[in-house]
């Protein structure tokens, strides 16, 4: 029982046929060519499949594609359409990822945080990325990258 | 990994339509709200429904509001919706404290409190909180509407007193009339996604009356009624706290599982009960740790 769903993906209207059993993460990666959300634990524990869904971070492994009909999805591909964001630059400058597997989710979780709170303290940053596991960096360079963006935002205002 | 088995996806526009669909499929139908529990169970092939009935097309099931002296939490209200609600910020700091320890943003933006108690796992964080507030679950089904007191809601691991075809539509939480303070303490291995190894919830009301609930240490979330009776009418002292802690093994019956041994759970339950009682007491006096502060 296929159904055609329409979503706004990184600013573009897209329609696609899905089955009820299709997971949103798989449809994004395999049918829509969006590879930044990664396949990790597939049970909501690790955060590598994080996307922005109507502007909020969610686990795309825990959503049926058919549920997404009419919703707006942003991934790292959409964030960086006009070049890297200041946060992404800070990640690069501080080598805030090594293998890169957690990076998409980390960037989206930190982007969401900075949209609501342009000057988070360390605890708030840790809380915002607590659902995103990183096995390389020890988290410190990631937290520093977010703080750097926060400091620069403070200078501009 | 896709879901291995095909199923029908229904998106009813009313509770009555959802209840009819649920009645038609019986045990083979599952309701979907946030999906953070159901989808992972389906991906892992633990739950194999023939129909998934998505409640998100029903108007009026969302929202968090204060009406007639009670907080109404619609079945589709996510933990984030609840935590961000102004009335919860101002009047129900204990609920906010609990939500702060539920997984992380990526789950809280999606998972609902109603879903949390419908999944009814022994470690569900909403259970003990709703128990100390004496909440009510409002359900609608083929035989009409009814209200289920939260004390009668949980009947076993993943079991509730919902009848076939019934849909939970809202949770109401009476706003305490007396001055009160509370504390929620959750033990887990790391912040982020981990489930509770054990949790303690305390509420203290003017007149030194107490409510205490435990999570993750019995087949369901439980009220620690014998401890409440012991504490009733007495001020918090070292001796009283020690007597309360000594009663923990009579009330809790934890198991050993992948997250913890039963001995560790029992020991830490006592430690957390002591901290929660002292924190609630000092919050009542206006000088306690701010809500949300990590106490363990």
Indicate the radius of gyration of chain A in whole angstroms. Answer: 16 Å
User: What low-confidence regions of chain A span 5 or more consecutive residues with pLDDT below 50?
Assistant: none
Distance, first to last CA of chain A: 53 Å
Structural class of chain B: alpha+beta
- The coarse overall form of chain B would be globular
CATH architecture of the largest domain in chain B: 2-Layer Sandwich
Q: Order of SSEs of chain A, N→C?
A: EEHEEEHHHHH
Order of strands, main sheet of chain B, comes to 4-5-10-6-7
Mean pLDDT of chain B: 96
Distance between the termini of chain B: 37 Å
Helix content of chain B: 25-40%
Please report the first level of CATH classification, the CATH class of the largest domain in chain B.
Alpha Beta
Main features:
heterodimer; A: 157 residues; alpha+beta; Ubiquitin-like (UB roll); DNA polymerase, domain 1; 2 domains; five-stranded mixed β-sheet; 6 helices; 37% helix; elongated; B: 296 residues; Uridine Diphospho-n-acetylenolpyruvylglucosamine Reductase, domain 2; Uridine Diphospho-n-acetylenolpyruvylglucosamine Reductase, domain 3; Enolase-like, domain 1; 3 domains; five-stranded antiparallel β-sheet; four-stranded antiparallel β-sheet; 12 helices; globular
């Amino acid at each position: 029982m296929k159904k055609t769903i329409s979503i706004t993906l990184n600013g573009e209207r897209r329609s696609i046929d899905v089955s009820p059993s299709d997971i949103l993460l798989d449809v994004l990666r395999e049918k829509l060519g969006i590879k930044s959300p990664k396949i990790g634990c597939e049970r909501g524990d690790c955060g590598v499949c994080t996307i922005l869904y109507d502007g909020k971070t969610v686990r795309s492994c825990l959503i049926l594609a058919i549920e997404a009909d009419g919703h707006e999805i942003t991934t790292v591909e959409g964030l960086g359409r006009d070049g890297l964001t200041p946060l992404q630059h800070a990640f690069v400058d501080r080598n805030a990822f090594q293998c890169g597997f957690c990076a998409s989710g980390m960037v989206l979780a930190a982007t969401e945080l900075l949209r609501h709170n342009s000057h988070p303290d360390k605890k708030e940053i840790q809380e915002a990325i607590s659902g995103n596991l990183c096995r390389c960096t020890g988290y410190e360079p990631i937290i520093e990258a977010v703080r750097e963006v926060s400091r620069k935002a403070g200078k501009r205002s | 990994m896709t879901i291995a088995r095909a199923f029908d996806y229904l998106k009813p526009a009313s509770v009555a339509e959802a209840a009819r669909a649920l009645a038609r499929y019986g045990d083979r139908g599952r309701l979907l709200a946030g999906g953070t529990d159901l989808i992972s169970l389906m991906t892992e092939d633990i739950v194999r429904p023939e129909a998934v009935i998505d409640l998100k097309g029903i108007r009026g099931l969302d929202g968090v509001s204060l009406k007639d002296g009670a907080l109404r939490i619609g079945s589709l209200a996510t933990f984030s919706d609840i935590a961000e609600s102004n009335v919860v910020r101002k009047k129900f700091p204990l609920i906010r404290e609990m939500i702060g320890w539920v997984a992380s943003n990526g789950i809280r933006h999606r998972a609902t409190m109603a879903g949390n108690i419908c999944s009814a796992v022994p470690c569900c964080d909403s259970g003990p909180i709703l128990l100390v507030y004496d909440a009510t679950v409002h359900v609608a089904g083929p035989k009409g509407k009814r209200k289920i007191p939260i004390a009668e809601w949980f009947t076993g691991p993943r079991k509730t007193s919902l009848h076939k075809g019934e849909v939970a539509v809202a949770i109401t939480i009476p706003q305490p009339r007396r001055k009160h303070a509370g504390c929620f303490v959750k033990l887990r291995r790391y912040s982020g996604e981990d489930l509770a190894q054990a949790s303690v919830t305390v509420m203290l009301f003017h007149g030194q009356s107490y409510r205490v609930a435990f999570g993750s240490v019995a087949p369901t979330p439980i009220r620690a009624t014998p401890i409440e009776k012991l504490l009733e009418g007495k001020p918090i002292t070292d001796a009283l706290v020690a007597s309360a802690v000594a009663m923990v093994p009579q009330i809790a019956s934890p198991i050993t599982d992948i997250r913890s041994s039963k001995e560790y759970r029992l020991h830490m339950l006592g430690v957390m009960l002591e901290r929660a009682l002292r924190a609630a007491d000092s919050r009542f006096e206006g000088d306690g740790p701010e809500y949300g502060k990590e106490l363990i």
